[in-house]
Amino acid sequence: MVTAHTPGYLYSQGELQELAGAKDVRALLRWVQELTNAHLVKLAQQGSAVYFGAVTLTDARVMRTLTPDEALVYDQIVEAGRNGIWTKTLHARTNLHHNVVARCLRQLEALRHIKPVKAVTHPTRKIYMVAGLEPSLELSGGPWFTDAEIDTEFIESLTNVICRFVDARSYPPPLDGPSSNSNGSSGGGTSELRVYPATYGDLPTVPAIAEFVKTSGVANVDLTLADIRTLCEVCVYDNRLEKVDNGGLGYKATLKTHLHNMGAEVEPTAADLVDFEYW
Fold first, then answer.
1. Which CATH architecture has domain 151-172+202-266?
2. Does the predicted model carry a pTM greater than 0.85?
């Protein structure tokens, strides 16, 4: 029994005949011709065999308004999906002259059927995709890229927010009042600080950090757990966070990060560490 498949699936003649319930090939071809004329079915050749693919109603409506050349170009762009298609590949697949392809692209873009996109791996290439689609991760580079360039400000902003969130859950609140360092200087010292014991296990995990980032609204794009983990690892590399495994992998702010967030102006000494109080 042949059933309907996901968009993009190509049916063989036998599958299509069984799916359509056609009594013979002649009846099948008559139906296929009607659907092809209405741009609801497209033909594809693989070797010597011919296959049939369904066309969405949206794409069919667009195709009916286009010239044959524009329809040919648009069909290839639709086929490329979220990966987009390079203009050089369009020339090869359509076998149209460069000027004809360029004219079709200008018209399709003017009608807002397609849009140009940049690929992080090939920023100089002219790539087009259907206007209503979002570029694939391979094409866009993910949330860290804007217009094919890495968004350092966005990354820095997110890592700062994450470090402050983790820091607030890595140390107990400091004791009130001024403090003095072991070297006699005052202000920004560490003797007023307290730390949790090494067995403390309520440190922020990746899911907890991701939920905070999501609810805080600091990111204007959806970030996956893998994205958040990447940001945490960047902070670990920069010595702002450290990984702690107390029955479940969590993250803890380093002492350097904690002191920075408190406005401390000095680095802790070994003697300072002795003065820490355990909560």
1. Orthogonal Bundle (1.10)
2. no
